[in-house]
Design a protein that fits this description.
Blueprint lengths: L1 H52 L4 H26 L4 H18 L1 H16 L7 E4 L2 E8 L3 E5 L5 E5 L9 E4 L1 E3 L2 E5 L5 H14 L10 E7 L4 E6 L1 E3 L3 H18 L24
Antiparallel strand pairs: 1-2, 1-5, 2-3, 3-4, 6-10, 7-9, 8-9
Helix pairs in contact: 1-2, 5-6
Length: 280
């Protein structure tokens, strides 16, 4: 019984001694971490205002703000550990070795990260642009640190790793696209009247942009038809719908104004043959 009481007294004495020795340091470390949290939020808000002036996308601004807050919090964590008397050099060396192993195992992920940062700061395209790259094309829906998401008109999405984008030839259509419509009319039709009707159709369609002005005219003469090319500009989401509307309008207006569309011509020749002699 006396041994048990003696052990309890030793434990209490040790706990009291540790509380006296390390209590103030732990309290100061907690205060340092609280200060780091406050300073990190302040730095994050300041960085958010700065990035807003640079016209960066909202997800990118949010990510960079969080990274800045974590960096500030990490600095204050180092200060708190130093206050507790913890040796940082062995800890940093161990983290360095572990980081090298992780980096080697995650080369592809780190490549996407570096490429994502390059895209974010060089800004070769923005959310809402229509781009063509790596044998894929579509409207840019999202840009993150590791991938870029493209949207298609069939509501499907293509996620491209950022390392597949940086260093490749990029075709950026911007936020508008040009249509490529061809109409073949007969040589018996009035070409000037057909061009005037096309101008009216383009002016009446609300999806066709006035600036830049639509282009159209005779581009090809063949044996059977006169080809008129029509190239208006529309917003990216209106591309497919505008093609359907313009083709329908051209068909209706040309039919009502007796503008004959060219039909394929075939020349059929009947080759005569000698009569087959009768069998004896």
């Amino acid at each position: 019984m006396d041994n048990s009481l003696h052990s309890l007294d030793q434990i209490r004495a040790s706990a009291l001694d540790m509380a006296v020795r390390f209590g103030p340091k732990v309290l100061v470390a907690i205060l340092i971490m609280c200060a780091g949290y406050v300073v990190g939020r302040w730095v994050g808000r300041g960085l958010e205002r700065l990035l807003l002036r640079l016209n960066l996308e909202a997800p990118v601004r949010s990510l960079l703000r969080r990274i800045a807050q974590l960096c500030v919090l990490g600095i204050f964590a180092i200060m708190a550990l130093q206050n507790l008397g913890i040796e940082l050099l062995p800890l940093i060396a161990g983290l360095g070795v572990a980081g090298a192993g992780v980096a080697l195992a995650m080369q592809g992920l780190l490549g996407n990260l570096v490429a994502g940062l390059s895209i974010i700061f060089t800004r070769p395209f923005h959310v809402g642009d229509y781009i063509s790259i790596a044998e894929e094309e579509g409207e840019v829906l999202d840009i993150s640190l590791f991938s870029t998401t493209l949207g298609h008109t069939d509501l499907s999405r293509v996620v491209i790793p950022n390392r597949k984008i940086v260093g490749e030839i990029l075709h950026n259509y911007g936020r508008i696209r040009r249509l490529a419509i061809s109409v073949g009319i007969s040589y018996r039709s009035d070409v000037d009247a057909a061009l005037d009707l096309i101008a009216g159709i383009l002016a009446a369609n609300p999806r066709v942009l006035k600036d830049p002005a639509p282009l159209f005219g005779v581009t090809r003469l063949t044996e059977a038809s006169i080809t008129i090319s029509i190239s208006p500009w529309v917003n990216v989401p209106d591309h497919d719908t505008a093609i359907k509307e313009l083709n329908k309008s051209i068909l209706d207006v040309f039919s009502a104004r007796n503008i004959a569309l060219a039909l394929p011509l075939y020349e059929v020749r009947m080759l005569g043959s000698a009569p087959v002699p009768a069998m004896p």
